[in-house]
Amino acid sequence: MGEQLVVELCRSGEHEATKQPYFEKWLREGLLSFGRPGTEGNRYAISVGIKRRDSGEVMQDYLTDIKPVVKACGLAFPTPEALGLEMPTWIDWSLDGVKPAEAGRWTPRAERG
């Protein structure tokens, strides 16, 4: 429901001046919440079972999950440099082939294949 509301608000035309800056602000916060990928602390957390995988992998899954909404809202991903984040160079930011119609149709990862 949240995704649908965001898409409707972005498509209304009332938020053109603010939607991209707010998106970038909250995208940064969201990505920061996963921790710094490839660091000693990240490797330690994985080795002792606190985490199951590197933060970079979690970041990629998050970005992949939100791509339909990003495209449906007419937003663009900023660069990691613009966000001021350390991220793996292999992260896929591309929106090529992403279908905006998939926004709001979240399904558990296990069902996506």
Structure write-up:
With 113 residues, the chain is mostly helical. It has one domain. It is built from 6 helices and no strands. The protein is elongated and about 45 Å long. The two termini are 23 Å apart.
- Poorly predicted runs are none
Which structural class fits the helix and strand makeup? mainly alpha
- In helices, the fraction of residues equals 40-55%
Per DSSP E runs of 2 or more residues, the count of β-strands stands at 0
Short recap of the structure:
The protein is mainly α and about 110 residues long. The chain has helices at about 1-10, 15-30, 40-45, 55-70, 80-85, 110.
Describe the secondary structure blueprint for this structure.
Blueprint: H1 2-11, H2 16-32, H3 40-47, H4 55-72, H5 80-83, H6 109-112
What structural keywords apply?
elongated
